[in-house]
């Protein structure tokens, strides 16, 4: 089997590492020269690709791909992979699965209510609207050309090196208090197993929420991370006083609880880290072993 990844980033690399253990061939694209060199040293074949830089010799590079993962967010001009290479992908005779990593942000704000894949999208920002447009573009290839498109809507992503534990260690965490606010999350291990499960059992045109079992307040996650690390808690900061970027602040404008029943029932996924507590404990244990 051969996987090509447009955007070998945090989540995609976790899946790629698992598949390479199963003797898959994995190649893809990366923006950073330093990251590209690192990935080449890990056995990946890396190609250049960007908004204004199509994949060179795309027909040949993609010719024998069985699986394609799309992990590049759309920009103001739309999805760059679709813009440059939709026709190349639509013509691939060997393609068995195409996965697009989207976001639960497409649902917009639901004031903390539970939602699922049947909930209509209602993007509350231009950024989320671009995601809806990208989803629709890739689903159109399924409708028009029978491309095996699958959409995966992801919430906040965390894992080793990118978690509340790491933020506390680096002194860049805030315990932001906004009453009633919760966020959904997913550990990269569970993203990887969800995608792998879909690859084993493709359902063309399907949409899945890949989220854990427990939406939680951000300050609760920070508190738990500090407690298991034996470190002092940062003082609570009212949301209005928090030092947040415009994008960070925009996330707090939406609140929803996202169900994962379809992921479990159709893909058979049993979460490795069903709550942030399980995920953070695993990260701390893994880092402890590495430092031992």
Predict the CATH topology of the domain at 2-156 and 187-211 and 258-274.
Rossmann fold
The proportion of strand residues reads: 15-25%
Oligomeric grouping of the chains: single chain
Main sheet summary: 7 strands, parallel
CATH architectural grouping of the domain at 2-156 and 187-211 and 258-274: 3-Layer(aba) Sandwich
Amino-to-carboxy terminus distance: 37 Å
CATH class of the domain at 2-156 and 187-211 and 258-274: Alpha Beta
- Strand order across the largest sheet: 3-2-1-4-5-7-11
Please compute the radius of gyration using only Cα atoms.
Answer: 19 Å
* Count of individual beta strands: 13
Percent helix range: 25-40%
Shape: globular
Topology order in helix (H) and strand (E) letters: EHEHEHEHEEHEEHEEHEHEHEHH
- CATH superfamily of the domain at 2-156 and 187-211 and 258-274, by name, is NAD(P)-binding Rossmann-like Domain
Broad structural category = alpha/beta
Number of helices: 11
Characterization of the model:
It is a single chain. The protein has a domain at 2-156 and 187-211 and 258-274: Rossmann fold, CATH 3.40.50. It is globular. It has 292 residues and is α/β, with parallel strands linked by helices. The longest helix is centred in the middle third of the chain and has 20 residues, at 126-145. The protein contains 11 helices and 13 strands. It has a 7-stranded parallel β-sheet, sandwiched between helices. The chain has a two-stranded parallel ribbon with strand order 6-13.
């Amino acid at each position: 089997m051969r996987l090509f990844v447009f955007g070998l980033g945090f989540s995609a690399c976790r899946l790629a590492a698992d598949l390479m253990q199963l003797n898959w061939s994995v190649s893809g694209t990366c923006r950073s020269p330093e990251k590209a060199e690192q990935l080449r040293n890990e056995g990946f074949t890396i190609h250049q690709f960007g908004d204004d830089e199509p994949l060179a010799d795309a027909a040949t590079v993609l010719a024998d791909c069985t699986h394609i993962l799309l992990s590049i967010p759309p920009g103001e001009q739309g999805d760059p992979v679709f813009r440059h290479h939709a026709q190349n992908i639509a013509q691939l005779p060997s393609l068995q699965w195409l996965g697009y990593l989207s976001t639960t942000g497409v649902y917009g704000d639901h004031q903390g209510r539970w939602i699922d894949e049947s909930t209509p999208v209602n993007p509350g920002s231009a950024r989320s609207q671009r995601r809806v447009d990208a989803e629709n573009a890739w689903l159109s290839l399924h409708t028009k050309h029978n491309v095996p498109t699958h959409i995966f809507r992801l919430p906040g992503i965390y894992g080793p090196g990118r978690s509340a534990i790491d933020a506390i260690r680096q002194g860049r965490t805030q315990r932001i208090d906004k009453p009633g606010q919760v966020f959904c999350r997913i550990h990269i291990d569970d993203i990887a197993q969800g995608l792998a499960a879909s690859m084993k059992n493709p359902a063309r045109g399907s949409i899945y929420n890949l989220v854990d079992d427990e939406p939680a307040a951000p300050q609760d996650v920070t508190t738990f991370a500090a407690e298991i690390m034996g470190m002092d808690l940062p003082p609570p900061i009212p949301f209005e006083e928090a030092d947040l970027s415009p994008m960070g602040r925009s996330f707090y404008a939406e609140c929803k609880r996202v169900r994962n029943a379809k992921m479990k029932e159709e893909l058979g996924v049993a979460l490795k880290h069903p709550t942030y507590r399980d995920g953070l404990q695993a990260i701390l244990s893994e880092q402890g072993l590495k430092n031992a």
